[in-house]
Amino acid sequence: MAKRKVILDVDTGSDDAIALIAAMANPDFEVLGIMAVNGNRAVPITTENSLRISELMGGTVPVFQGCAVPWTSCMLGFRRHYPMYSAPEEALYKNIHGTYIDQCPPATIKAQPKNAVSWLVDTLMEAEDGEITLIPLGPLTNIAHAVRIEPRIIPKIKEIVYMGGGFRVGNKTALAEFNVWLDPEAAQAVLDCNIPFTFVTLDATHSAYVTMEDAARFRAIGTRPAEVVASLCEQRIAGYGEWQKVADVPAAPVHDPLTIAYLVDPTVITDIEDAPCVVDCGRGAAYGVTLFDIRNGRAEAKAPNCRVALKADREKYVDILCRLLENTKK
User: Fold this and answer.
1) Directed axis angle between helix 257-264 and helix 14-25, to 10°?
2) Which of 18, 111, 202, 292 could form an SS bridge with 169, CB 3.0 to 4.6 Å?
3) What range does the domain containing 78 cover?
4) Is residue 304 reached through a cis peptide bond, with omega within 30 degrees of 0 on the bond before it?
5) What is the pLDDT of residues 224-261, one digit of tens each?
6) How many CB atoms lie under 10 A from the CB of residue 193?
7) In this structure, is residue 330 part of a structural domain?
8) Exposed, middle or buried by CB within 10 Å (0-12, 13-18, 19+), for 88?
């Protein structure tokens, strides 16, 4: 069976790093490249972190630095400064993500000279229709630029599986998820392309939390990538313990790798709905909220434009990560 060709678009902090390891450890994926975008950290840092993980996994997957600021919102007066982290938020993000992925040494490989957006356009223009799956794990800035620059790439994309959005769960605000909130205009622009699109939401990732026992399972695999994953999970568990309780035991959601697990085994998602979605791009309290309408059968509901993953099988998720990590080298 032919490998699935994938491109990852990441704002590499702790969970992106785990997702990158999982993707590159999957023998059924051909990872064509990694695009870094501004998000959890500024884009030079997310690029360096992506390079560190690529090098950990052999250094053969190229990394491309992408957009440093959101697609349009920095031109709007209501976003007075950027990035928009308060001092407490900065401390929180540092506890959960760190600044750099300190579990890996500074990268000796370099980012490719071409910008991520240009590379994505060129790569998709050379592809067959429906050939490449995009797995964005941060703001959709890079992809929004690409589809606006060259709309002919749209049919080349098989599907987009996105860690983003929330139905009943938010993190940046009460209902807005960080990746979408950071660039909601980009998210709406990509949705408007009518590419098959799956949101792996906070609702799903919070139901598939990782515990200290799970981290110990990862470490017991005995490879260097498995050790990095275990350490990053422990870092997240400590950070969430100071911020948001997600289980009756020390635990944390590890959001981004759930996209990889879903592509490996779709049954890891136990509740998924077809739904219309609109991203709130106004200036009020709902800014950045993904508005999913799952009122099945309501005559006034719009036609679905995405799939929405709402719940996951926690044990199966951890098992999939273990299986992928067992493919890594010492």
Assistant:
1) 30
2) 202
3) 4-272+308-325
4) no
5) 999 999 999 999 999 887 767 788 899 999 999 999 99
6) 18
7) no
8) exposed
The enclosing domain of 142 has a CATH number of 3.90.245.10
Q: Burial, 247: exposed, middle or buried (Cβ in 10 Å; 0-12, 13-18, 19+)?
A: middle
Residue found under tokens 């493919």:
327
CB 40 within 8 A of CB 13: yes
On whether the CB atoms of residues 157 and 5 are closer than 8 A, the answer is no
Catalytic entry in 97, 145, 206, 255: 255
Look up 145 and say whether it is catalytic.
no
**Number of folded domains in the chain?**
1
- Look up the pTM and report it: 0.95
16-52 tens-digit pLDDT? 999 999 999 999 999 999 999 999 889 999 999 999 9
301 inside domain = no
The residues pairing with 160 across neighbouring beta strands, listed in sequence order, are: 134, 197
Q: What's 37's DSSP letter?
A: -
